[in-house]
Amino acid sequence: MKHLIFLSSLLMLTLTWNNFSSTKEISGRRTDINSCGNMETLNAYQKEASTKAFANMHPAPKYADPSLQLGKMIHFNCADGKEANGYFIPSKKKSNKWLIVIQEWWGLNDNIKNEADKYFKDMGDMNVLAVDMYDGSVASTPDSAMKLMRGADMGRMTSIIQGAIKHAGTAASIYSVGWCFGGMWSLQTAILAGAQAKGTIMFYGRPETDMNKLKSIQCDIIGFFGNLDKSPSPEMVTEFEKNMQLAGKKLSTNKYDAGHGFANPSNPSFNADATKDSYTKAIAFLKSH
User: pTM value?
Assistant: First the structure.
């Protein structure tokens, strides 16, 4: 009898432990889904940006004067327990509005810091944080940018965006803007920020294709794209428009007869008229939201 009681107790303990372990594993999976979600779009960009064809669309960036920059570098904690860096310009008046600025594939260089300054000057009562997605690395040639992209950890980058959102605070209204690589991540920021997201700007960034992620967006999106661009192509942009409509989300697209990188003076596709028009509309979008 004692032997039977012992075996019964052992069986109960085993079942309880297995149930606990299973629940813990499922909980872990749910956490992964909530924090990262489907990374198919991010991985597709990484694969494309690791090719010579993509690199050929991005000649080495020109020198950008850092002498009059308004911000300073700061550190903030990330969701993965590590620190991240960012170029920060605090609002002149206390504000819960935060604009997250996201780099091109070069890294957080002086051109992006100067862009952050421009948005700060025109918005005024907004904190501006340009995040460093490469943890201090900056490329100066297409080959070095391609190398950084090949070694990029999309999970780490997700944690950096989450860390920036958390650094802004639970009461913050989150806005975002980015170009190319950063345009893609600007849209991902809207997804990661949830109800805190209030407006997102993407310049020729790769659109998200996962419908569940698109359905989770809780803010308006404005995008600027080139009809002569190959990444994203006009066909990809059209699909994005259809998917956003199916998801019941508000997307405004502006298309120019320009190539990839039309808003970057370093790029041969630079288009002054398109750059001026898109920037004016981006500022108007932010102010209206």
Answer: 0.87
